[in-house]
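Bumping my old thread because nobody answered last time. Still need a sequence for this structure:
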């Protein structure tokens, strides 16, 4: 009698591999686990063939096929790790999810920042941060500083789509006012007229100027000139008459002297 050795043959086992050696007259039990070389992630199930053989062993240790042995064929069905229905569901779900994301992006709205009482630069930074575009125009404004936001459209707090354009009206400063005509007035009255709205001009200095026709202390000129446009609140120089120039004074004529006649 010969010893029997249990071996596997086929792609699953990777060639003839000895599993169990049984001596003559001895009973042995072998538990065999069959598994593929690599995982099957998705797709159809894959069938792998394998075989078990109990073969005799000669005196020199070599296997003797077909003598005093047994042969068993088997199959291993490898099931994908990801079921086919999951792949099909994903194929249907991906376009739906993409369409949903596009829909949310298009329909999603964002609150427009309130840009009142801020400068042009600050307003632009807030709009960019919120995802809005903007366009600007300028206008004169008496109460809003230069480059300040006068108004916005739409107003702050309203909701608009991401990427919408917000219109800003930017202050170009107060509306210029005409310098009032104060020629011929004294300094006190001229100052009061200059301070009246809309100009609200201030006197920065007074300069004396000789004038033969204007009474002393009255205004003979201004800088800027009368009726010239200037920014409200700007400074005006007054030129006040100092009276006639000494060089322009008429010469003094001596009264004639009457001499007594010889017959007196």
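Sorry it took so long. Here it is:
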């Amino acid at each position: 009698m010969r010893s029997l050795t249990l071996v596997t043959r086929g792609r699953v086992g990777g060639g003839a591999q000895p599993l169990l050696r049984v001596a003559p007259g001895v009973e042995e039990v072998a538990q065999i686990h069959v598994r593929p070389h690599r995982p099957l992630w998705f797709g159809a199930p894959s069938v792998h063939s394998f075989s078990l053989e109990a073969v005799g062993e000669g005196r020199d240790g070599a296997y003797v096929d077909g003598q005093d042995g047994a042969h068993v064929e088997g199959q291993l069905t490898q099931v994908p790790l990801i079921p086919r229905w999951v792949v099909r569901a994903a194929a249907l779900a991906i376009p739906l999810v993409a369409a949903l994301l596009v829909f949310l992006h298009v329909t999603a709205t964002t609150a427009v920042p309130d840009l009142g009482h801020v400068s042009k630069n600050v307003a632009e930074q807030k709009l960019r941060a919120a995802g809005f575009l903007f366009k600007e125009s300028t206008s004169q404004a008496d109460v809003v500083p230069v480059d300040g936001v006068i108004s916005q459209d739409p107003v702050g707090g309203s909701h608009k789509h991401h990427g919408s354009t917000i219109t800003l009206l930017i202050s170009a400063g107060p509306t210029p006012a005409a310098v009032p005509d104060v020629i011929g007035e004294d300094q006190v009255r001229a100052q009061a007229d200059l301070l009246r709205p809309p100009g609200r001009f201030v006197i920065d200095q007074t300069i004396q100027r000789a004038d033969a026709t204007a009474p002393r202390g009255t205004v003979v000129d201004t800088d800027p000139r009368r009726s010239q446009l200037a920014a409200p609140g700007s400074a005006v120089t007054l030129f006040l008459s100092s009276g006639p120039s000494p060089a322009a004074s008429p010469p003094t004529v001596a009264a004639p002297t009457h001499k007594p006649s010889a017959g007196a």
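The first helix runs from residue 84 to 107. Let me know if any region looks off to you.
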